Structure formats: structure tokens, C-alpha cells
Amino acid sequence: MSFYELSIIATLAATFAVVCVYFFLFSLYRQTYIGLWAVFWLVHFISQIFYRTPLHQIPTPVLAGIQFTLVMNYLLLVFATSKFLKRKMYKGWYYWTFGLILAADISFLLNAPFILEVFPSIVFVAYVNFWHGWMFIRNFESKGWGKTIVGISFFGIGLHALDMPFLMSVSWFVPWGFLISGLLRFIISIGTLMLFVEKNFRDLAMKEKQYRLLAENAADTIYLYRLGAAHSFEYASPSITKLTGYTPEDYYQSPELFFSLVHPSDAFLLDSLVSNPVAVSAGPLIMRFIRRDHALIWVEQTTVPILDESGACTGFEGIIRDISVRKELEQDVSRLDRLNTVGQMAANVAHEIRNPLTTVQGYLQFFLKKPDFNGYREHFTLLISELERANLIIKEYLSLCKNKARDLKVCQLNKIIQELYPLIKADANASSKDVRYLPEALPDIHLDEKEIRQLILNLVRNGLEAMEHGGIITLRTYEQDGDVYLTIQDQGKGIPPHIMENLGKPFLTTKENGTGLGLAVVYRIASDHQAKVQVDSGPQGTTFRIVFKAK
Questions:
Q1: Chain-centre distance for alpha carbon 416
Q2: What phi and psi values does residue 198 have, to the nearest 5 degrees?
Q3: Which stretches make up the Histidine kinase domain (predicted)?
Q4: What is the mean pLDDT of each run of 10 residues along the chain (551 residues)?
Q5: Range of the domain at 259
Q6: Is residue 225 part of a domain?
Q7: Are residues 436 and 309 in the same domain?
Q8: Domain boundary among 369, 401, 433
Q9: For strand 296-307 and strand 285-290, is the pairing parallel, antiparallel, or unpaired?
């Protein structure tokens, strides 16, 4: 076997190795551009089998077919690499390819010299290789050696393509030309493998960094627990310190520490998780932890089992969330639900009590008119006043317990106050006090007129009762930041701090004869209107500020 034949076999072997590398990469990544690269090298390999004869000795029709296949194959290579670099393929490539094929056909028809027949195609092939070398070195986002090796190899193939018309007639160089071409192609395959290995490492490092950032900055605690001869924590996110008071390093050194934090009554839940992670992981586990500072917290734990190839569980990943606030809210809702039931029962009882009280009051008023009971007139009068006081308490209590639908209509707050103002003025004058009303222009808002009247009367009467003779109640309305404000300011002595902390709770009062239900009704009405109640109190008086949303 001659050196020429050996060089051809070596070139074919190198090209076949390149084809195998690219089909292997395609089987791994399933990317379109890798498949197109593989097709390019496969066509290149097949075409080499059919023109083992030197090009200048090949018949013209066969040479024309080879040139057409060569140009279209390299156009496919440009298309694939453009997809790989995420660049749109320039339309000039198509025009140039069409021009080259047309020029080659004309030169073949005119029986032009061989150099003129192949030179346009050779220039095209060289330019495509130069373009690839430049694109891989300058435009590919990688800091490894892979892109450099691929780029330089493409430059080498481009230069080798340009020297072919001049050296193919040199018989001693032709075998070396085949070997150089095969070697450069093989180096391209090695460089491409390096390129994708570097890309994988870079992508893995980026993903690991992203996942680590997510895990280490998550509010929930993420951990990985390994089962086996010696159970251990493989990972615990830093948030476990905030959750339990112990650092991740504490758990790495002593895995049993985690189990010691579980409340004794809930220890069986964690034991069942460790003994059978697959079954327990079907739903979240809710348990109590005792923190390092001995505080008790509620946590919710979700786990995912880790299985090996045989299906055996080798550990589990878990996410722990502090649900103490949620538990408190659930308890508050449950308590409020019970209180609501008790309130409804109490309202029914109060309603039933009022009926016999009305009967007793009626008979006392009847006896009061009888001459036979003149000696008991003072006693009857006292009893009637106490019954009226009891009826007033029951009336206010029932008003607090009402749960009727609100009749909200578009109203003008100033109009409601103006209609109510004569009554308020009369009440103030009767107790040697005064009321001032300072209205400003307001937008219309949705209100229940009867409820708002009750709110204003309760606040004004509270203010009047809190002031000495000569005191002044000031009502003011205005708009600010899109909200409607109603302020009622008195000149009393202020509300004590211990009362301010519990303002609005039923039966809380500083008055000797007060029921403690007036402000509770105010807060309920404000809540039904989605309004806020703001209170400022001091030695010079108290200001109640009701803030209604205009929209």
C-alpha cells in the first residue's frame, strides 16, 4: 500500500471520527444545530469516498456535482453555526451561494481552465472556514481552550483550502495535504468536545450558584438528610439558625440535635418519617419545635424521599416552615367563632330578658298612679329608673350584636351632620356646653346614613360627658390624600393610658353610670364601612378621627 493510499485512509478515518463525535454529541444534547453539524461532516465524509482521484483528473460532470454538493454543504454549516451562536443568518450567504453555482456552471459549459472552474468554490470554502474561526474565537461566550482550538483549526482548514489549486499538482505534497486536512478535522472534533465539556461545567456552576442563592436566602429552611449506617445532615440552609437557634454546623456535627428539638408529644411523627420516608412524605408534617431559647414554635415540614437505582430510600430532602403565626391566627379565628356563638346566644337571652322587664316596668308605672301606693312613690320611681337603665344597657348591647346587611348608598357626609347638628347643639346647650362645626367640601362616599348618625351621636355624647361646663366640642370634615376625614375633638381631661390600650372593647368605661358599649358600637360601624378609627388623647382633650375611603 502506497503512502498516497495511506494518507487517504488516514483522512477518511479522521473525518469518520469527527462524524462519530458530532452524532454522539447530538445523542446527548438533542440540539438541532449539533444534528446539522453531524450531517455536514457525514456528507463531507461520503463525498471524500467518491473523489479519491485528484480533483484535476476527475471528469467535468462529476466535478460539477462535487462542487455543487460542497457549496450547499458549507451553506448548511453556516446555517447550523448561526443557530448555535443564536444569530440570524445573513441573506447574503444565499446570494453568494447562488452566484458561485452559476459561475461554476458557466465555466464548465465554456470548458474554462481547471483553475477557473474550482477557484470560486475554493474561495467560498476558505471564507466559510475563516468566518467560523472568527465566530468561535470572538463571539462564543466561553473562557476555556475549546473555542480557541476550534477557531484556529478552522483558520487552518481555510488556509489549506486556498493552497490546494497551487499544490495539488505537486505529487509529493498531495498525501501530506490529505493528512493535514484530516488532522485539522480531528482537532476540530477534539476542540468541540472540550467546548461542550467546558459549557457543561460552566452551566453546572451557574445552576449550582443560582440554587445555592435560592436555598441560602429562602425564608424556609431547606435540608438534606442521609439515611444509612450513620444518619447525617448533608446540607442545611442558613435559615435554620433563625428557626431553631442552632447553626448548620451544629447539625452537621450532631445529627441527633434535630430530633432533640421536637416536642416530646410530636416525637413519633419524626420517628415515623425516618423509619418510612416514602409513606410519610405523602403529606406535610405539622409539629412543635423547642428552640434553643426554649421558645415553642409550630413548624410545617414537607419531605421528598431520595431513592437509589434499586428503589431503596437513601435519604430525604425537606423544607421546614415556621407556621407559628398561622397557628395563632387559627386559634384566634376559632376563639372568635366561639365568641360569636356566645354573643348570639347572649343577644337572644338579652332580648328575652327585656320582655319581662318591660312588663315589670309597666306594672310599676301603673301602681305609681294608684293613691294606695303614694307612700311608695319614691321606691317605685327608683325601681322604674333602674329598669330604664337596664333597658338602655340591653338596647346598646343588642345594637352591638346586630349583624344586619348594611344599606350603603352614595351620601354626602356634610349633609348628614347638618341634619343632625340641631339635635347635637340642643344636647350641648342643655349641659352648658357648646358645639362647633367646621365643614369643608367633600366628595360623595358610600355610607349607611342611620349607622353614621349613631356613630356621630355616640362620639359627641362621649365628648360632652368628658368635659366640664363651658367646654366646646369641635366637629370638622375635610379631604386629604383622597380620603374623607371626620374629626370630633373635645376639651376633656383625656383618656387614661390603660383605657387607650383597650379602647373599643365592650363594657370598658371610665364613667360611673356608663355601659362601655358606646365606643364598641362606633368601632363596629367604622369596621362595617371599612373606615379607620384614629385616636389622639392628652390633658387638653381627645380627638377621634374617622377616615373613610373615598373610592
A1: 46
A2: -65, -40
A3: 348-551
A4: 74 85 88 90 80 55 72 88 84 81 72 69 85 80 77 86 69 73 84 81 79 76 85 89 91 89 88 82 86 91 86 87 87 68 66 76 81 81 80 66 67 90 86 92 89 88 88 93 92 82 60 60 83 89 90 65
A5: 221-322
A6: yes
A7: no
A8: 401
A9: antiparallel
Burial of 80 (0-12, 13-18, 19+ CB in 10 A): buried
215 lies in some domain: no
Considering the domain architecture, whether residues 146 and 271 belong to the same structural domain is answered as no
Distance in angstroms (rounded) separating the CA atoms of residues 316 and 224: 6
The CATH number covering residue 312 comes to: 3.30.450.20
For residues 434 and 387, membership in a common domain is answered with: no
3-state secondary structure of 487: strand
The whole-angstrom distance between residue 344's C-alpha and the CA centroid of its chain comes to: 41
Q: How far apart are CA 246 and CA 243, in angstroms?
A: 8
CA atoms within 13 A on the CB side of 80: 21
36, containing H or E segment: helix 32-50
Question: Cell 493510499 identifies what position?
Answer: 5
Of 401, 430, 462, the one marking the end of a domain is 401
Model confidence pTM above 0.85: no
**How far apart are the C-alpha atoms of 483 and 395, rounded to whole Å?**
33
Question: How many structural domains does the chain have?
Answer: 4
Q: State the number of CA atoms in the 13 A half-sphere of 106 facing the CB.
A: 8
Same domain, 74 and 48: yes
One domain, residues 415 and 539 = yes
Q: How far apart are CA 321 and CA 219, in angstroms?
A: 8
One-letter amino acid for residue 451 of the chain = E
The CA-to-CA distance between both ends of the chain, in Å, stands at 96
Indicate the pairing of strand 434-438 with strand 472-480: parallel
- Beta carbons within 8 Å of 456's beta carbon, 6+ residues apart: 416, 417, 420, 424, 475, 486, 488
Cα-based torsion angle of the residue sequence 522, 414, 445, 408 in order, rounded to the nearest 10 degrees: 60
CATH of the domain at 149: 1.20.1070
